[in-house]
Amino acid sequence: MNETALGFTDARGCKxxxxxxxxxxxxQAQSMLLEQLQALNAAGLGALERLKCLELxxxxxxFLQGEQRTRYYGKTIPLSPNDSNAWTTASTMLExxxxxxxxxxxxxxxxxxAAAHEALITQRLVRCIGAQMLFHGVVYRRFDPALWTRLHxxxxxxxxxxxxxxxxxxxxxxxxxxxxxxxxxxxxxxLQAAFLSEMTVPQVDFAEALLxxxxxKVQLLSAPAAGDTRRxxxxxxxxAKPIGARPxxxxxxxxxxxxxxxxxxxKSMRRRVQALQAGEDIATLGLPAxxxxxxxxxxxxxxxxxxxxxxxxxxxxKPSNTEKAGLVFGIVDVHFFASGGKAFEQPDxxxxxxxxxxQDIEVFGRVREQTLMNLQAQTQGSTHSRMGxxxxxxVEAWPVVGELLGAVRVQRPQTSSKGVAIGRLVALRMxxxxxxxxxxxxxxxxxxxGRIIATISLFPGKPEPIAVRSxxxxxxxxxxxxxxLKLPANEKIQVPASLVVPSGIGHKGRGVEVFGANEAxxxxxxxxxxxxxxxxxx
Length: 538
Known about the structure:
Distance between the termini: 68 Å
Strand content: 15-25%
Radius of gyration: 27 Å
Number of domains: 4
Number of helices: 13
Strand order of the largest sheet: 7-8-9-12-11-10
Helix content: 25-40%
Mean pLDDT: 91
Number of strands: 18
């Protein structure tokens, strides 16, 4: 295979080449840019000219990745082949960009022509590694632990050479246009400490924006501050280990470790939490833009526990006596099984049962799925038929990896036709004859060996099928009823009765109608999923 020739020999030529990129075809532009990064790394350019070219290419890489982010950000896992290829191309661009900066750093540390820019080059490398980690995180893939080793080594060497805190220009990724090795390192460490495997992409975006805004409030200490006798856990980095920051009691601190001191960050976060709890308008709090689907108050509380309170590590799952669990995804399919295999129809409009349906009820006590599928095929397009999509209503058997308190870890089989995403509604039963319980996907990991492991957190109580709609006629597309589910209260564990409704219906303070019951008002949103909301009413 012939190598692509470098399309320029200096920074001026690089700028001209970038100006001719076909930005109307983003995938083609990405491929061309990747080829040039690879050609640049193989070329014999001087370190200073190489650095200038990399700075130009870095901006274009960021632009193209922003244009392509919808190809893989927030998608169900596994990605489609086309989206997976797009992700791989973008990830490889980051690797090649980092490879170019490493060449420059070698020259700088040897006292070459790039020596005056050692702090900037190191900061760019830290940014590249942090971006690679994040890039894996948003598609829930584990990355090579060697990235942690490289990141820790970069920061440690920058400390030794006295350049860790040196300000460098970074208009691309820093609030205010300036950053440092320390700031970039702290951002990468804290973002990974947010447990990206449990977050939706909008939540990740919000956390990243908070760190860009407040990363200057974070300190990295080589020893506990003088007079600090606190025994509470702190986030601690052990550079000798290929892992990120972990909670650790302060008295257990060892030489060589680094404390991620977040006192000032905590003050900023707590002030916003208190203001939001007091009902203050979020627009007045100096927070970054809150993406759609993100509860700023809940997210600030969660991140504060992880970053500032030394939240304990997640408990390890226990082995399960059940080999496989049955999973059903989405409120429509879950409603079908919760109703005993009855197709959903408008409850205020009755129709005559077909002879086969009547026979099924007499023999089996319910209408069989096959009968409903046949009926759908016969009545496709009828205004009385509300059974669209019935052939896809199936229970998938997923191997059980382990059990936790109120949650089950399962492995997606390769034969599965279903993707999985954080926040998606799931019904799960432990065995073929067990009842279904309702839950949602709260953690997702795509292992390096290809296995996809999902944690399904369960809601207490057996779900009851209901028909719901928004009480506000202006907020609904039609007067049609849609599938919903009702969960009972559990006084022992202080869980209130709740409704599970499709996204867009369960807004706090707004009315919701349940067929056969009085109109109610949403009191609180207990869980905000990607395709549902679990709410209490009064």
